[in-house]
């Protein structure tokens, strides 16, 4: 698949501050290893936190709604499951969602049975559409546009110093030039919920993010 390389073709959905001029790999860590989807942190190659989703545990938050924040705690995006729905449709709202607010995008399974692709529709003047293909439970996904150009990739993370593949609770989100990183991280939250019944591999000890060479 062709990569998005032309910076003139920018895809701002959530915040233009998260558009990058070159490939931007983020290390994404589950901050709780006990409950699906209730905590994430994303770090850049310098070890600085870029995004976070705080963990509140299974009894103290709405499991159908999650808020993506920046490093300072500013609300960037809310993703919420739309009910009732056969295709596990989720919707994204700018900032912290309020009653009556209109979504800026939606994500849904392309089929109600079996493993399938995810279809994304952006609600703006462009009406841009994207597809997610792969297996998120194995941290192996591509996000691409209608021209089959890869805009983001989710993959297993390798510790180069030890030449070992880390567990699935730590993985890489690689954002291609011109694509909205906050939007991409919001899609990770949705994927984690849709694939929530898949087992999460937990190693003997929690792995912390590290600075890459």
UniProtKB/TrEMBL annotation:
SUPFAM superfamilies: Tubby C-terminal domain-like. InterPro entries: LOR, LOR_sf, Tubby-like_C. It comes from the Eukaryota. Belongs to the LOR family. This is Protein LURP-one-related 12. It comes from Eruca vesicaria subsp. sativa. The lineage of its organism: Eukaryota, Viridiplantae, Streptophyta, Embryophyta, Tracheophyta.
